Amino acid sequence: MVLRKILLLRVLLILSLVSPLIQAAEEESEQREDDDYVRVLVGFHDRDQEKEYVRRQRMRPRTGKPQSKINYEFKQTEALAMQVTRAELEEMRRDSKQFSYVEEDILVPVAAAAGSSNSANATNTWDERMQRQLLEFKSYGIELTQAHRTINPDPNWDQECGVYLCVIDSGVFIDNLDIPYSRGDGYVDGKTFGSAEGQEWFNPKGTDHGTQVAGVMIAQGGNNRGISGVIPMGPKRSNVCLRVAKVVSDGEGVSSVSALLQASEWCAEEAGDKPVVINLSFGVEIEMSTEKAIYQRLYDQGALIVAAAGNRGGTDYMYPAAHDSVISVASINARSEHSRFSQRNDKVEIAAPGEQIQTLKAESNEIMVSQGTSLASPFVAGLAARIWTAVPRCSNKEVRQALRDTARRLGDGVPNRNFGYGLIRARDAHDMLVASGCNPEPPTKAPTQPPTPAPTIDWGANTFLREDERINQDNRIVRNPDNKDIYLQQQSDGNLVLFDQNNQIYWSSGIVHIPSNKRYWSVLQGDGNLVTYSEINNDRPKVEWASNSQSPIDNYNLVLTPNRDGMMIARRSDGQIIWSSRSSDVRTSQMQTPERQSTVSWISWIFGEW
Predict the structure, then answer these.
(1) Using one digit for the tens of pLDDT, what is the confidence trace for 343-398?
(2) Which domain of life is it from (predicted)?
């Protein structure tokens, strides 16, 4: 028995001596493996070329030697995030025929605060502060930016998530008592990306940055604790849903460009067709092609992207703020003076408070004082989201322009390199948008020439098809070999789409979104062209859309009332027209089959008001 114990002790001693050596060898091996690879972003000339490259990569045999690996396929542009060997990197850079660009997936630091501290009094816990009968801190920035003024969400809009506000950062400490969002409440969700994958987006450790940013935006006001953010009323009253993308690993201060871009795509996907504001309190001096393409695509699709101008106090461009698709935010102090640390260049667009800002800490219920364009950016992002809830039919470009037009002018000239267009004034921007009503962008221009030769059945939204016919992309009638029923639907964005029961789209009108606060009229002209207009000025109609159909039938004056639900119309075999929407039962007309199916007139109920 004693001998066994002695042998066991010897074995344990040997293991204790060998284990550190094994661990060191493994770490050295991993380090060598990391040194063999470079993380890159690879662009392609078109999507087909990218798909073919991905297919070949996945079919490559594994040899045990270092090989390239695809980490992510971007959705908004023809690009991949990859891990490649250094030898492969050099080959790829020389292959301009296959790749439009190859760039390293660089690390991007958070827009590091120009100075932060746990200020006296500011870091006391709630209990200590209540004992001293201190009320909540209200930043000077609240009044400077008009965040204290009333801005109510549109009561007729979505009552849960009117606007999505996305914080791409180090995570947000959701359990802070001054954050009125709770996991599982339907108003907040999050996800991790890059080196932060697998960590808790709602409980960051070793870094306060994301929680500081969120505090400026959403800290609850009027609760006698903590601070008040620019959206102080909580999600149920503000109609703002929060999305948290954690891209910075616990205890770190950097992220990769690929992680930031994946997170940005996710934010836009979460919002769907709702307005979304994305805050990026990051900055680096290098312009990236992939980043530029994705942010431009997201902006074109309706996202409002806001970023910190940078804290180096110089004139260099900092990205992503310097992209044309992004609002670059500079910092000012309580006297509306330019902060010495804030970048000065012609990309600066708006100024906001960024010096000595009280905000929230992670891992506690304490508050802290911090500063930097990282704190100025969420002032603008949060206020933009709040404004947008009141005018949800406005586009991101209209909201952005209103922020510029109503900013309080600072410095010499407008815009200028220190302040851009000036200090953001939320209520003034809100009032301008409410007064303007926001107009949809011009519709896609219809073709001016009819198809040649003329089709046997003239196309038009006013035409219903026989079961053996369909419409192709250039508006001509072609034979339908499958004898499918054809459906016409007005989608929620106002677009008219022709499709079959398998949801195969045969034609799309490109009609723009119709705001519900306008009335539209449609006239089916003698030449068969369906013209939609919204008003008549000086005896001339303001044309919103035209079908360019060619049916030679009489004029019909029809009133169109926008229908957010969308409308579907189909012609049954007995000639009756049926229509329905997602919010109503199927209805049937008493209209009989016309003698000539090519001249079935437009049915106004597609926009329904019954």
Answers:
(1) 999 999 999 999 999 999 999 989 999 999 999 999 999 999 999 999 999 999 99
(2) Eukaryota
Active site residue 209: yes
Counting the structural domains of the chain, the total is: 3
Task: Assess whether 169 carries a catalytic annotation.
Answer: yes
Cβ–Cβ < 8 Å for 86, 32: no
| Position 113 in a domain | no
- How far apart are the C-alpha atoms of 249 and 441, rounded to whole Å? 41
Closest CA to 192 of 118, 100, 263, 284: 263
Higher pLDDT, 474 or 173: 173
- Sequence-distant (6+) residues with CB within 8 A of 48 are none
**Is residue 323 annotated as part of the catalytic site, yes or no?**
no
The active-site residue, picked from 68, 105, 139, 169, is: 169
Is residue 7 in some structural domain? Answer: no
CB atoms within 10 A of CB 596: 10
Say if residues 477 and 469 touch (Cβ distance below 8 Å).
Answer: yes
Q: Is the dihedral of CA 231, 233, 237, 241 positive or negative?
A: positive
**Listed residues 436, 451, 486: the one ending a domain:** 436
Is 453 among the domain residues?
A: no
**What is the pLDDT at residue 440?**
52
Which CATH number do you get for residue 394? 3.40.50.200
- For 66-107, the three-class secondary structure string (H helix, E strand, C coil) is CCCEEEEECCCCCEEEEEEEHHHHHHHHHCCCCEEEEEECCE
* pTM (global) more than 0.70: no
Q: In this predicted model, what pLDDT tens digit does every residue of 143-175 receive, in sequence order?
A: 999 999 999 888 876 667 899 999 999 999 999
The single residue of 105, 116, 178, 209 carrying the catalytic annotation is 209
- Give kind and range of the element (H or E) at residue 14: helix 2-36
Catalytic-labelled residue, pool 264, 374, 395, 522: 374
Helix (H, G, I), strand (E, B) or coil at 526: coil
Full domain range(s) for residue 44: 36-105
Q: Is the pLDDT of residue 41 over 70?
A: yes
pLDDT at 67: 77
Residues in the chain, how many?
Answer: 610
